[in-house]
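INPUT
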Amino acid sequence: MADYTKPIPVPQPESDRYWEGTRREELWLRTCLDCDQAYFYPRDICPKCHSRNTDWIRSSGKGTISTFSIAHRAPHPGFVGDVPYIAAIVELEEGPRIPTNIVGVDPEPENLDIGMPVQVVFEKITDEITLPKFELV
Ligand SMILES: [Zn+2]
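OUTPUT
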C-alpha cells in the first residue's frame, strides 16, 4: 500500500513466524518451555528466566482490555486521519499483554472498560505486514 504513511514494523528473523502468522490471520506467541510462560514480543530468549528453550504456540486471540487511552492528538503525521482512536494494552488469555488498537467501536469512554472481553481481528497494511487489532466481544 503506497499510501500507508504510518510507521511500519520491521520483521526480524526471530519474529518471522509471528508475521507469517498474522498474514494468515493467526496470532502466534513465543512460549518458554522451562518456566512455562508465553510472552510478547517474540524473541529467542525468555524475558522471565532467560532460557533459550522456547517454542511457538498459537494464541486463541481472546483477551481482555488491560488498559486503554483515547488518542485525540496524532502522535505521528500518519495518524492525523485516525483521531480519535483507541490505543490499548490487551491481556491475552495465554498471559502476555500486547499493545494494539481497539476497533469497531466509537472511541468514547462510556463504550470501554478495563476487563472487557475482546477478540483479535487483522488489518493488512502491506503485502508483508498484517497487524493484530481487537474488537469488543
Ligand atoms: Zn522462561
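end of record. The chain has a mean pLDDT of 96.
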